[in-house]
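Methods — Computational structure assignment.
A single polypeptide chain was analysed. Its primary sequence is given first, followed by the predicted tertiary structure written as structure tokens.
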Amino acid sequence: MAIVDKFEVTIVSSKGQVVIPAAFRKMLGIRPGTKLAVLSDGRNLLLKPFALPPSLAAFRRLIKKSAAKKRQQTYAMPHFPPVTAK
């Protein structure tokens, strides 16, 4: 059985939303947009930060970075030597 280090109370809104207290968000690195896995054993509810596997997350970052770089590139006109009349 785990020992509980911190305890706080929150309220469920009419939309089913709960506010995770700031101390827990900071402790677990939960920021806006963080995905949480919701687990239950029928009596208890567990919210666990859920992240993409590092390789997939890194791949997605690489794709975004590449797309941004491509958008920023300016294409120079090719250099053609001057045409001289003969």
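Note: The mean pLDDT is 82.
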